[in-house]
Design a protein that fits this description.
Blueprint (H helix, E strand, L loop, with lengths): L1 H11 L7 H9 L9 H13 L9 E4 L3 E4 L4
Antiparallel strand pairs: 1-2
Helix pairs in contact: 1-2, 1-3
Length: 74
């Protein structure tokens, strides 16, 4: 269910870059005390399900040094 919550959060804000910490707060809640790279695992799972080529994502993008974002329409 966290994968869906993560996807929904990114989809509600296309083009906006979120750090791992921001995604953890938004999806897992501010009381989450786990490993922040947990976000990476969920992003990779989503890419494997949604992207034509998960190694060259076009929908869920990595912004180096910043975080992740959902591609804007158009």
């Amino acid at each position: 269910s966290k994968e869906f919550d993560l996807l929904a959060h990114l989809a509600r804000h296309p083009g906006r870059v979120f750090t791992r910490v921001q995604l953890l707060d938004a999806v897992w809640g501010t009381t989450y005390e786990g490993y922040e790279h947990n976000v990476n695992t969920h992003i990779n799972r989503l890419r494997n399900k949604l992207e034509a080529d998960p190694m060259r994502p076009e929908l869920i993008l990595t912004v180096r040094g910043a975080g992740y974002k959902m591609r804007e329409a158009g």
